[in-house]
Amino acid sequence: MTSHRAEAFGMWSLILFIVRIFEYHKEDPTDALSMVCDNESLVNTVNKITKRKRKEFPDETLEADWDVINEIVMLVKSYDQSIEWVRGHQDKAKKREDLPLKAQLNCEADELAEEAQLARMMEQLKRKMTRHPNNPIQVHARNVTITAKVKRNLRRLAKAPKLIEHIEKKADWPEGVSHTIDWEAHRTLITNSELPNKFVTKFVHNMLPTGNRVHLYKTYYDHQCPSCFTEQVDRRHLLTCLDPERRKWKGKLLKELREACDRTDVCQPMIQILVDGLYHELDDYQMENTTSHPDNLQQLIAEQNNIGWDQLLYGRFTLYNGKLRNTDISLTEKSKSQG
Ligand SMILES: [Zn+2]
């Protein structure tokens, strides 16, 4: 679920709850409500549609998260309301008690939402959703509800299983391993890569013009590694060549990776595993002494062992990684000291 959709659900459920309370007490909420939200794009969308005089165009129902936004708009319109935007996280710059009431309430709501999100982090997400009362049509495919970019997502759902089957065969994974991979993260990483598309596709699917391949159709090209003279150079050698010159980029890669991770919310023990796993992989030997890592990360290590640490370079991470990514760092540190 996108964060935009999650926030829209939050807004809808709260408005619905308040409206039902007023209905129960047979009161009119019109003048009693004041609604504030820190998601600017959601606020703008809802207010724009609410104020619109013309009828909705049919293709506007294809906009992302239309189903939830439509439910919000129906409620907001019937009670003649609009939603006000307030800047989020204002307590980062000022003491909370010095902020206006709406900003204080926003900070409190944010904390409660984070608490609820963490509590449900390890739950399996239901990908098939219930149809909302004012949404006459809902698209389900392969047990997934498509709520945005219908055409693109349908195409992806139709093609993905065959592609995954092909990747599985090429990677030579034992049965069941492909189900442990976060394919959504894989797709995002490939799509968002700043490298040229052609290179990324060739690299990920092992189609780079490495020595062993080019030599087959242009025999005048050498199949040897120009640095260490290993014969029939392939992608694996490209990554694991032990020549000192080639090792330089590996050190730089790991350093930059650690720095990039430090800028995110990934906890330190996870960064250490990522760097360790890649370090050993690039030096072409298996990670040793994995028991020194925290207990609650052992499953992650075991799953990535099955997938292969080299697969991290092709954007194939264990699903367990995504589930753990936002768990409390203190929890991780604690189990390390206990372990
Ligand atoms: Zn070499």
Report the biggest beta sheet as strand number plus sense, adding barrel if it closes: 2 strands, parallel
Roughly what percent helix? Answer: 40-55%
The tally of beta strands, per DSSP, is: 4
Mean pLDDT: 86
Shape: elongated
Strand content: under 5%
SSE succession: HEHHEHEEHHHHHHHHHH
Strand order of the largest sheet: 1-2
Gyration radius over CA: 26 Å
Unreliable spans: 326-339
In angstroms, what separates the terminal alpha carbons?
Answer: 34 Å
Number of domains: 2
Helix-strand makeup class: mainly alpha
Number of helices: 14
Q: Any ligands, ions or cofactors bound here, and which?
A: zinc ion
Give a written overview of the molecule.
- The chain has 339 residues and is mainly α.
- It has two domains: 3-123, Nucleotidyltransferase, domain 5; 149-338, no CATH class.
- It is built from 14 helices and four strands.
- It has helices spanning 3-24, 40-51, 66-78, 101-119, 150-171, 183-192, 197-204, 211-217, 235-240, 244-262, 268-282, 298-307, 319-324, 329-338, and strands at residues 35-37, 83-85, 139-141, 144-146.
- The strands form two sheets. It has a two-stranded parallel sheet with strand order 1-2. Strands 3-4 form a two-stranded antiparallel ribbon.
- Mean pLDDT is 86; it is low at 326-339.
- It binds zinc ion.
- Zinc ion binds next to loops.
